[in-house]
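Reader question, answered in our methods column.
A reader sent in the components of a multi-part assembly and asked whether the whole thing could be modeled at once rather than chain by chain. We filled in our standard form and ran it. Here is what they sent:
COMPLEX SIZE: two components
ENTRIES:
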Amino acid sequence: MLEEAAAELFLEQTYAGTTIGDIARRAGVSRNTFFNYFSAKSDLLWVDVDAGLAVLPATLADCDRAAPVTESVRQALLRVAAGFGPGRVPWALTQYELMATSSELEASALARFLVQVGLVHEYVGARPGQAALADLAGRAFSTAVVAAAVAAAREWAAAGVGRGELAGYVDVAISPVCAGFHPVLDRVQDS
Amino acid sequence: MLEEAAAELFLEQTYAGTTIGDIARRAGVSRNTFFNYFSAKSDLLWVDVDAGLAVLPATLADCDRAAPVTESVRQALLRVAAGFGPGRVPWALTQYELMATSSELEASALARFLVQVGLVHEYVGARPGQAALADLAGRAFSTAVVAAAVAAAREWAAAGVGRGELAGYVDVAISPVCAGFHPVLDRVQDS
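And here is the structure of the entire assembly that came back:
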């Protein structure tokens, strides 16, 4: 309801020109009610993405711990991506120009990016036998693999109606990162 | 001069509590003069980083075009990193907490990140025999390799006075990314 009200207003008067008060009024609720659901106006752009990403911690926790850590992370990211089909392109990825949002959208994008990097890094560091890897290589892997997945999501969103499934794009983007870090991060387990 | 005035003021009254007018006044210049040198307050945090990154386009252009593209990018990023020794840690990386800047700092960080990704991606796409790679894999590589370099810079800045040279950190972080993408991006040249 708040999402629909926001969508209408952003299209009518741009993202920047729309206040939280405008959105609450259009939806017929109070500002306090808005803040029961969202912590910032930019959250509205990310509803779909945030819902999709929310499963990452549980997905990582479910991974086979006998597999190399790079492979576990790859599988977890592909499972998260599998939630996004060709008809479910999040608003933050497609409404970029239209809503004149770029600078605030970028800041809210980075905040989300850093959360996912932190989750992957925590997983890499917490794996049995991986404690010593909560270090530079683990941080570089976590950052690079999530960055590659984000690059894939942007290409996918830009690909138009024939885009197919997000997971295929993410696979092409992240598999080389995982392959490159496998000999570095999985040395402990292989020995 | 403007940098020194800003440094004093940010420490005295925080980044958020300091206006461009305050900085110009302390430095004894007009606001117009400020804007001759900087386009935003956040630019002041990035003076050292921006100066270091400014050499990336020329460094990429100078790379040996007979080498694999992933190796050329690796060499170029290491050459840029070589400009940062243990005593030259940019302000944006060290004054994070102190200046209470995080959200604006993150937005200005992302803008710089995307510029560097764009430069690397342009280089990858423009290499002879690489035209078909100005695509998903090229974009994923460019994003991941720059993200890994940024992760390295953060680890380096956090490492304290015994940190040594930035280039060593960047090498550990980006080499696996380059190794992972080598068979994907350099297939055209090898065949």
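What stands out: The CA atoms of residues 56 and 90 of chain B lie 17 Å apart. Chain B has eleven helices and no strands.
Send us your own complexes using the same form.
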